[in-house]
Amino acid sequence: MFRFLKREKSQKISVDIVENIKLLKTIFLNDETIIFRTYQYNKNNFLLIYSDGMVKLDYINNILESILNIKSNEKITIHSLINSLPSAHIQISEDFDEVIGSILTGYAVILIDGEDKALLIKAKESNARNVEEPPSESIIRGPREGFTESLLINLSLIRRRIPHKDLKFLFKTIGRYTKTQICIAYINSIASEKIVNEVINRLDNIDIDGIMDSGYISELICDHPFCPFQTIGSTERPDVACGKLLEGRIVILVDGSPFVLTLPYLFIESFQSCEDYYVNFIFASFNRILRLLGFILTTFIPSLYISLVNFHQELLPTPLVLSITAARNGVPFPTVVEAFGMIFLFEILREAGTRLPKPIGQAVSIVGALIIGDAAVTARFVSAPMVIITALTGITEFLIPQLTWAVIIYRFLILFLSSFFGLYGMFFGILIMFIRLLSLKSFGVPYTLHTISLNPQDIKDTSIRGPWWAMKYRPIILGAKNIIRSRSQKTKEKIELE
């Protein structure tokens, strides 16, 4: 249900326009953006009220011109105005709270003396950003459109790609002060009713002052708020959102945010890219395997290096042990301190490069890493092998941006255990991480289900991407009503005969 900021008892509009004006001016006291215009025409008094900056002034002028064109012997009423005004978005309301909310959201409101109803005319000024390529998900091949901050534009981008009657948009308003509009999008003939109802229930239970971005919603409705692994996906790309909808997932759009939420979200999706579906399936599968390898390397390489150098030197070739020992000659800090310090320094450079303006940020990241790394080795603060390990750890981290925060936390945890117990500590940390992964759920769907499976049908779109002609079924794990994605000619003929 909708959550509006209302009085304990809803107040009705009075037939006395003077009383209505007095009440409105009391409510909007000291707010100079609310414009009151009182007119008298054909012996009728009427009030036009709107919020300056929220409406198109040309549209306001057209409304007044249409009213003045009413015949001089005709009385102005609500119904006569509806027939005269050049707008397709007109509502009639007798609720004072709805009138106030409409004024604050870009509607022009007309009150007529003697009428206990108001006319709400949509005249909102559109200051939306143009549709551009999303900077957070750049690709070489594929659509270049990205979501904007306008909810209506985002919905049109989805509707244009899926012009089907089963595509449903369910609207809600969340935020006692911001009254942010939320839209739940799903395909009725594919999505699971159980998951759709669960999403609606969780959104209904949100009671908060305001929503500024879809990240608020993600944190408020996720299954495991204290887990670093995200169980709700996000994207800036309409093609990705539509692809999720066609698989039976649900998309949540928030007015004012270019990031839409997709759910349920599985662990294996962190290694998938939208471009995987636009290129040859062999190259797409190779890239996914690279991302999986990158996740393994960025999480475990520092702890593996510490374990082998400090506790299990017998597992390394003798020339390599001698080379590492020679490189560490003169370094005053233990290997563990080196590892923690260098990785922490890399994360500082990464964060600085992200927050600074793009040209400066790139210079800080590259120059900072080169100069600091070279100076640290020259000054014998750290050894050259540790710089190599840190660089490899940081580069492979960029392969999986969706898992960055989880990787950082578990990397330090496993590194800490390895510094005390060697490989035993490392494997214990890995065991903790996998137990946590296996215990997660996203809206009732196991987070790691079918991540490792021997069933050919289950692995066609997981760590590898099968050819489109082989992916005939949607993921069964999402509870989709219709699991058939594509049919062969023989299957079509059989269905037609039946």
Structure notes:
The structure is a single chain. With 498 residues, the protein is α+β, with helices and mostly antiparallel strands. The protein folds into 3 domains: 17-122, no CATH class; 135-265, no CATH class; 281-442, no CATH class. It contains 16 helices and 12 strands. The protein has helices at 17-27, 57-68, 78-84, 96-104, 151-161, 193-204, 214-221, 238-246, 281-310, 318-327, 335-355, 358-378, 384-397, 404-421, 423-439, 489-497; strands at 34-41, 44-51, 90-93, 107-112, 118-122, 167-174, 180-187, 233-235, 250-254, 260-263, 441-442, 445-446. The chain has a 5-stranded antiparallel beta sheet with strand order 1-2-4-5-3, with helices on one face. The chain is elongated and about 105 Å long. The two termini are 43 Å apart.
Summarize model confidence as the mean pLDDT. 80
Order of helices and strands: HEEHHEHEEHEEHHEHEEHHHHHHHEEH
Number of domain units: 3
SS elements, strand count? 12
* Spatial extent as radius of gyration: 30 Å
Percent range of helical residues: 40-55%
Protein structure class: alpha+beta
Low-confidence stretches: 1-8, 489-498
- Which strand-content bin applies to the residues? 5-15%
Major β-sheet, in short?
Answer: 5 strands, antiparallel
Name the strands of the widest sheet in spatial order. 1-2-4-5-3
Q: Treating each run of at least 4 consecutive H or I residues as one helix, how many helices?
A: 16
Envelope shape:
elongated
Q: Separation of termini?
A: 43 Å
